[in-house]
């Protein structure tokens, strides 16, 4: 299955690309950064999803919208508008079997930077719009909303014992997911799932379930 992965040079995007390659798929990566993967079935395209030309990629059957930024001043422009731009270009060819959006648990809780939370909330809403349109040709569209993930982006709190202790106090399972675990969920939604569509799957170690009861 020919798969497009945006933001494929690092973090969750790279882990997703590696998972698809390991399972025998052809992967086309799109990232503003240079390629960090070397594999005979991997092709890298340097592009900014929010502006400028997007590469011409034909016959793709799967699209993983992962590229994004956090608290950048351009969160809505990149995370939401860039994701819409990519999806409208590649998803509606009649050959697309699945589209997966990497959103965030903050899309539901709002518990993060304001524009970031708004951008990811918009992604989840847009996913539902895509699912309805893609269903006409038998394709699925879903979003995956991680909570904390052990990537370099979160090093600031991961390496601060006081902040980490505070975070774990609000996390029932007392851990964060790895990028590789999120990649497993993304692969299931994209390559295994055939009947779930228009759904947002939250993988956050119970963060969003936390509620302090005072009596």
Q: What summary fits the major beta sheet? A: 7 strands, parallel
Proportion of helical residues? 25-40%
| CATH architecture call | 3-Layer(aba) Sandwich
- What structural category characterises the helix and strand content? alpha/beta
Strand line-up in the sheet with most strands: 3-2-1-4-5-6-7
What's the CATH class label? Alpha Beta
Number of helices, where a helix is a run of at least 4 consecutive DSSP H or I residues: 7
Compute the number of structural domains: 1
Percent of residues in β-strands: 15-25%
In CATH, the topology is named Rossmann fold
Measured between the Cα atoms of the first and last residue, the distance is 54 Å
Radius of gyration: 17 Å
Oligomeric status: single chain
Low-confidence stretches: none
**Overall geometric form:** globular
Description of the molecule:
The protein is an alpha/beta fold and 215 residues long. It has one domain: NAD(P)-binding Rossmann-like Domain (Rossmann fold), CATH 3.40.50. It is built from 7 helices and 7 strands; from the N terminus they run E-H-E-E-E-H-E-H-H-E-H-H-H-E. A 7-stranded parallel sheet has the order 3-2-1-4-5-6-7, sandwiched between helices. The chain is globular and about 55 Å long. The relative contact order is 0.15. The model has no long low-confidence stretch (mean pLDDT 96).
């Amino acid at each position: 299955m020919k798969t497009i992965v945006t933001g494929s040079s690092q973090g969750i995007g790279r882990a997703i690309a590696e998972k698809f390659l390991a399972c025998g798929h052809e992967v086309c990566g799109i990232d503003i950064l240079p390629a960090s993967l070397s594999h005979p079935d991997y092709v890298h395209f340097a592009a900014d999803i929010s502006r400028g030309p997007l590469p011409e990629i034909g016959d793709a059957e799967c699209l993983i919208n992962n590229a994004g930024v956090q608290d950048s001043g351009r969160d809505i422009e990149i995370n939401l508008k860039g994701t819409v731009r990519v999806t409208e270009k590649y998803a509606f060819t009649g050959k697309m079997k699945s589209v997966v959006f990497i959103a965030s648990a903050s899309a539901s809780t709002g518990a993060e930077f304001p524009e970031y939370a708004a951008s990811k909330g918009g992604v989840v809403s847009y996913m539902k719009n895509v699912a309805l349109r893609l269903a006409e040709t038998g394709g699925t569209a879903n979003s995956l909303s991680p909570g904390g993930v052990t990537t370099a982006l979160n090093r600031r709190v991961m390496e601060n014992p006081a902040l980490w202790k505070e975070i774990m106090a609000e996390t029932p399972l007392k851990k964060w997911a790895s990028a590789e675990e999120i990649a497993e969920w993304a692969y299931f939604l994209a390559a295994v799932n055939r009947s779930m569509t228009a759904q947002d799957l939250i993988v956050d170690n119970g963060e969003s379930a936390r509620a302090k009861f005072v009596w």
